Amino acid sequence: MLLFTGLGNPGSKYAGNRHNIGFMAVDAIARRHRFSPWRRRFQGAASEGEIEGQKVLALLPETFMNESGRAVAEAQRFYKIELRDVFAFHDELDLPPAKVRYKVGGGNAGHNGLRSITAHCGNDYARIRLGIGHPGDKALVHHYVLSDFAKAERDWVEAVCEGCADLAGLLATHRLDEFQNRLHLFLDARGFGPPEKAGTKKPG
């Protein structure tokens, strides 16, 4: 059993927040792969399915972001899921919008959801870091992450979630490098690749 957990805050008030892009990505995966209906379990909303022959539990903790680890730890203990089989999808201020990176272990970069998972479960799980950009001033971060994505951002948000759903099989089979590389190609093909460097021109 693998555990795909999205990080965010529960309730309609927060549903469109930048902080909730992890919820959005895991929900997209569950829909694409026709997981079971969501139901309340493990202090959150849980859904089960199969990807590439692997059983997967999708979990959206309803403990609020700062206590995400309580829900993740409960599900992990119940199914005896190894930490290497836990994948946390979360917003990442240190990456530009529509940029996605993964890492296993390492620091939590001030992310309270990751800090909680590490405290309750250990640190050597995979983070799927979904870039949302930075407001440019540390004092603005709290308001920024708890604000909804702007209308102009919705296309790339949907593309990131669609790409995660399309390529979830690579995560399920622990091909994380391939997941990251192919997701970048997927996003680039939809016009959400890296910005053109200053002083360069496209050929043509």
Descriptive overview:
By secondary structure, the chain is an alpha/beta fold. The protein has a single domain, classed as 3-Layer(aba) Sandwich (Rossmann fold). Helices cover 35% and strands 21% of the residues. The protein has helices spanning 21-32, 68-79, 112-121, 141-145, 154-166, 168-172, 176-189; strands at residues 2-6, 39-41, 44-51, 54-61, 86-92, 100-104, 126-131. Strands 2-3-4-1-5-7-6 form a seven-stranded mixed β-sheet, with helices on both faces. A hairpin with a 2-residue loop joins β3 (44-51) and β4 (54-61). It is globular. Mean pLDDT is 93; it is low at 196-204.
What is this structure's SSE topology?
Blueprint: E1 2-6, H1 21-32, E2 39-41, E3 44-51, E4 54-61, H2 68-79, E5 86-92, E6 100-104, H3 112-121, E7 126-131, H4 141-145, H5 154-166, H6 168-172, H7 176-189
Parallel strand pairs: 1-4, 1-5, 5-7
Antiparallel strand pairs: 2-3, 3-4, 6-7
Subunit structure: Monomer.
GO biological process, one term: rescue of stalled ribosome
Family: Belongs to the PTH family.
- Give the H and E element order: EHEEEHEEHEHHHH
Number of DSSP-assigned strands? 7
Which CATH architecture is right?
3-Layer(aba) Sandwich
Low-confidence stretches: 196-204
CATH homologous superfamily label: Peptidyl-tRNA hydrolase
CATH class label: Alpha Beta
Distance between the termini: 50 Å
- How can the largest sheet be summarized? 7 strands, mixed
Round the Cα radius of gyration to an integer and report it. 16 Å
Strand content: 15-25%
- Going by helix content, strand content and strand pairing, the class is alpha/beta
Strand order of the largest sheet: 2-3-4-1-5-7-6
Number of helices, where a helix is a run of at least 4 consecutive DSSP H or I residues: 7
Number of domains: 1
Describe the global form: globular
Helix content: 25-40%
The CATH topology corresponds to Rossmann fold
GO molecular function: peptidyl-tRNA hydrolase activity; tRNA binding
Family: Belongs to the PTH family.
EC number: 3.1.1.29
Protein name: Peptidyl-tRNA hydrolase
